[in-house]
Specification:
mainly alpha, 74% helix, 0% strand, elongated, PXA domain-containing protein, Phox_assoc, transmembrane, transmembrane helix
Length: 274
């Protein structure tokens, strides 16, 4: 019990205890009104209950029951770590290729596979590879690389907002080119442009654009066109190729030159002959 240093402290402690007991007795008496409506009859019973609880709490020690935890054996540990029969990690079926997950369309996958197989057959196997060796490993590796590139390209195309591309980006690009043409046409003279042939107009526009440094580098000469395409394809392959292929200089160089010289240059010549 707390040691009292003065009579005032004793009085304060007595007041606190009296208020505490009064509140407890009042609360118990109030709950006892559910059994007896007489408050004065409930008062002594409340005092007895409060005193009994006080003695009980002082004399009896209460604690939570401790449950015995069975020691875990090594066998039970192994049972928990054991994989289920239906666990996917035990399946012998290989996971779907990454390019299939990115394309995510059976019809498109089948069309791409057929197209790539025909390209490999006509331009690789039948054209030169079968004359060297009957082995099929290299064409399959080439096919895997091409499919990964197409899968990566497909995934990136899906992220493009087609509405913004057609209604904003393409319109802005066409508008910029038309504005550039009109400015140079006005500089040359509309009447002069009207009497020139198409080849002469192109040459005159080219000279004006070169003088104003607005001519695209690919239009300066065939060699410049090749270098621009080479640089663009190199950047594209660095993105779409798998890391181990893009970090291999010989693979990166051969892939860049094949796409630049065999694919893109013929396409550009077909789109803009002469």
């Amino acid at each position: 019990m707390k040691t009292m240093e003065s009579v005032q402290d004793l009085i304060e402690e007595a007041k606190t205890r009296i208020i505490y007991w009064a509140l407890c007795i009042f609360a118990i008496s109030y709950f006892l009104t559910h059994t007896s409506k007489s408050m004065w009859m409930n008062l002594p019973i409340a005092i007895l209950i409060g005193s009994g609880l006080r003695i009980l709490l002082n004399e009896v020690e209460f604690r939570w029951k401790v449950h015995n935890v069975r020691a875990q054996t090594y066998l039970s540990f192994l049972e928990k770590k054991q994989l289920s029969v239906n666990d996917s990690r035990l399946s012998m079926a290989p996971p779907p290729p990454k390019w299939k997950r990115k394309i995510d369309s059976p019809h498109v996958e089948e069309a791409i596979k057929t197209f790539v197989d025909k390209i490999l057959k006509d331009f690789v196997v039948d054209l030169w590879y079968s004359n060297i060796t009957p082995d099929k490993e290299a064409p399959e590796l080439i096919r895997s690389i091409i499919m990964d590139v197409l899968g990566e390209t497909s995934g990136r195309v899906k992220e493009v907002n087609i509405a913004d591309l057609l209604t904003r980006d393409v319109v802005d690009l066409v508008g910029d080119h038309l504005d550039l043409f009109r400015r140079n046409q006005a500089s040359i003279g509309i009447d002069v442009m009207g009497i020139l042939s198409s080849e002469e107009r192109d040459e005159r526009l080219k000279c004006h654009l070169m003088a104003s440094k607005e001519l695209h580098p690919a239009l300066v000469s065939p060699d410049c066109e090749y270098k621009v395409l080479q640089r663009l394809i190199g950047g594209l392959l660095a993105i779409v190729l798998r890391p181990r292929e893009s970090q291999c200089p010989i693979v990166r160089c051969i892939a860049r030159e094949l796409v630049t010289c065999i694919v893109m240059q013929p396409v550009m010549n077909f789109a803009s002959p002469g």
